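Justification of resources, computational component.

The compute hours requested in this renewal are based largely on the per-chain cost of generating structure records like the one below. Each record pairs the submitted sequence with a full structure-token output. That output is archived, and it is also reused by downstream analysis tasks.
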Amino acid sequence: MEPAGSEQRGAVRELRLHLVTWNVGTASPPPDVTSLLQLNSLGPTMDMYVIGLQEVNSRITNFLSDLAFDDPWSIFFMTVLSPLGYIKLSSVRMQGLLLLVFVKHVHLPFIRDIHTHYTRTGLYGYWGNKGGVTVRMSLYGHTICFMNCHLPAHMENTEQRLDDFEKILEMQFEGENIPSTLDHDVLFWFGDLNFRIADYGIHFVRESINNKRYNLLWEKDQLNMAKKKEAFLQEFIEGPLQFKPTYKFDLYSDVYDTSEKKRKPAWTDRILWRVKNLCQHASKEGEFSEEEQTISVTLNTYISHMSYGISDHKPVTGTFGLELKPLLSDPLIILNPEGEWSAEHDVLISYSAVPEFPSSAWDWIGLFKVAFRHVNDYVTYAWVEDDEISSNKDSKQVYMSAAEIPDMGGEFLLCYYSNNLQSIVGISQPFQIQPNRTLIEKDLTQEENSWMQKPDNLESLDEF
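The structure output for this chain reads:
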């Protein structure tokens, strides 16, 4: 794991982002999501996964248990991604809407000011079956916002969809100096947006799809039509719809709705984005220079995944390149294990902070398995003030008791959690902890003794 802070200030960095939107129709997770997450891709691995789900099972029994524990979908994606070196950075849920953000460990010290929000729009704003869930953050000093929405259904509700989206855009995050959604450097908008294909009859729509002439349908797509009329939508960019409309399918098939309703196919599931600098410079032609553009977004793929049949929607993914000039080049905290760590004795951690770091008595350093799932998935922790044993102007030392160290040892890493910033601000390289040999030898001796006693037991059984 290379320290991200070793890059020079001003050097352009490219991050790869994989974004998923999927209306899962209250279903349980599928057996495999390798293709959905492009885990077998030959190119560079992703730096960040952003997963937006709609219609996650929110029956009252499920919802109450999910409030106390992670829901099945969160657990599922953590199980898939944590062994690959991703941590669940943040999540937000509102009834059936769920938004998950996973990042590679190396980026953690450069992601700050993480906030979540949800906006109800169902039943005049009192019910959360429709609306939006949002996660925002500062990524290498640039503000990024992710907005997963489920807008009203049915052909005739275009205006309601637009009104609801405007309401979601107007929401404010709690906290000081946090920009509004449209003031973020980059805003991703995705979800089951429920826009339909107007005017054309079902026969023409299906024929166009069968002949892969999707472009014949683009101009009657309600979102495309709205983008031409509504000023607030014109700043949002979307890739070409070069895949089949993703709604409505019979379950476990790639056959469009054969029920009595015979819903007309539609591109309900969409991913759009907006770059603030582009919007500002579009109105000042001739004044734009490349040097002013400190972050840019490139769409690499925009596809649907027809092989998934657990719901009547097909999932849609967008893979993006985020090119940015890091405004943060050094982590706030650098920390390391001191000497060789063993479960047989107390151990030491040394760390140093930048001068402006806002430390707190509630800061802590956690010991994590290398494949940890989220910030609370620590093995043990030490309070940086209560467990401090030495301090000078360059570094401080904190101890952990041998009793807290896992006896079997293994590969671990250390993370410094800032209470004021509510995030991990420093992470060590992975390191080995030696097992407790005394305990292992004792266990082996006990095992040998139990094996030596077994023949006697077998003989006594033979007598019966």
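Confidence is low (pLDDT under 50) at residues 2-8, 286-291, 457-464. The first strand starts at residue 13 and ends at 23.
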